[in-house]
Amino acid sequence: MYAVGIDIGGTKTALAIVDQSGKILSRTKLVTDTSIDPSRMIKSIIETVKQMLVDHDIKEEMLAGIGIGAPGPLDISRGMITYPPNLPLWRNISIVADFKKQFNVPVRLENDASAAAVAEHHLGNGRGYKDLLYVTISTGIGAGIISNNQLLSGNKGNAGDIGHMVVDPSFGECTCGQLGCFEHVCSGTAISREASKIKGITISTAEAFRLYKEKDEEITRYLDVVINRMGMAVTAMINTLDPEIIIIGGGVSQVGETLFQPIRGYVKRFTLNRDARDTPIVPAELNQEAGVIGAALLMFE
Questions:
Q1: Domain layout of the chain by residue ranges
Q2: How far apart are alpha carbons 47 and 56 in whole angstroms?
Q3: How many CB atoms within 10 Å of residue 117?
Q4: Strands 12-19 and 24-31
Q5: pLDDT tens digits, residue range 79-120?
Q6: What distance in Å separates the CA atoms of residue 168 and residue 230, rounded to the nearest whole number?
Q7: CA nearest 232: which of 166, 133, 138?
């Protein structure tokens, strides 16, 4: 049996056909065009899925289903993407119903970070742990929570929406209206935005961290604060959820130990439970594919 995984992001949408072991048979990516009506984007995703199935001679009876990971807020009980800040035109979109009109297979919607958590739990650095937290720091920020080997989705699928907990109001207003949300301060989008303001030219997140490693004075002063706030957020999550391990994925995590070492240092100093101060904080093993693999694996649970 196979499953289709779809990982809808703010800049790109990943699609894959995955078997029960988590092996990817086929994958592709689409640009997430946030300027067009969501129905057109969903139609493009559906057409791409159909073509992938044809190309690999996979009939519907060979599919366990289609799993969709998407940024929240969601209402998974109604199969809807409701108000994602990074997809401003996507309001109350009945994406599960749209797919069910085109495919006679089960369709499941979950938060994108939750889907990635499932993949890391089964196939990545979360193997062997029954309580873990997966954090993605990319265009946005979110988390997936595995507790006692079960995915915690919450009432409507929005458990783990940590991107909108406040870490530093001095950074100004987030897209959600609050001041200083984790996502507004520490996401790749935020780092590129603020670094560009500091240097007076357009700078990517990767370039900002390159300047940080080169000890650029202005960027170092700025990113020291950002990484400190990441440590603050991770410590709050450990205090709240008591995980055995924290796995950090997403584009910003690719910076590596430049990021991980100071976060671990903050946790070691400030986590309330002394026994939790050595909680493993590790990079995602599946990197950018965790979301799309996890979305597919949802259909085998």
A1: 2-116+289-300, 127-284
A2: 15
A3: 33
A4: antiparallel
A5: 999 999 889 999 999 999 999 999 999 999 999 999 999 999
A6: 10
A7: 166
Q: How many CB atoms lie within 10 A of CB 261?
A: 11
Task: Tell me: cis bond preceding 280? Omega within 30 of 0 counts.
Answer: no
CATH architecture of 127-284: 2-Layer Sandwich (3.30)
Ordered strands of the 63-70 beta sheet:
24-31, 12-19, 2-8, 63-70, 107-111
Q: How many CB atoms lie within 10 A of CB 265?
A: 13
Within 10 angstroms of residue 269's Cβ, the number of other Cβ atoms is 10
pLDDT of residue 10: 83
Residue 194 tokens read as 């603020």
What was the pLDDT predicted at 86? 80
Fold classification of 2-116+289-300 is: Nucleotidyltransferase; domain 5 (3.30.420)
Same fold, 2-116+289-300 and 127-284: yes
Tens of pLDDT, residue by residue over 262-283, are 999 999 999 999 999 999 999 9
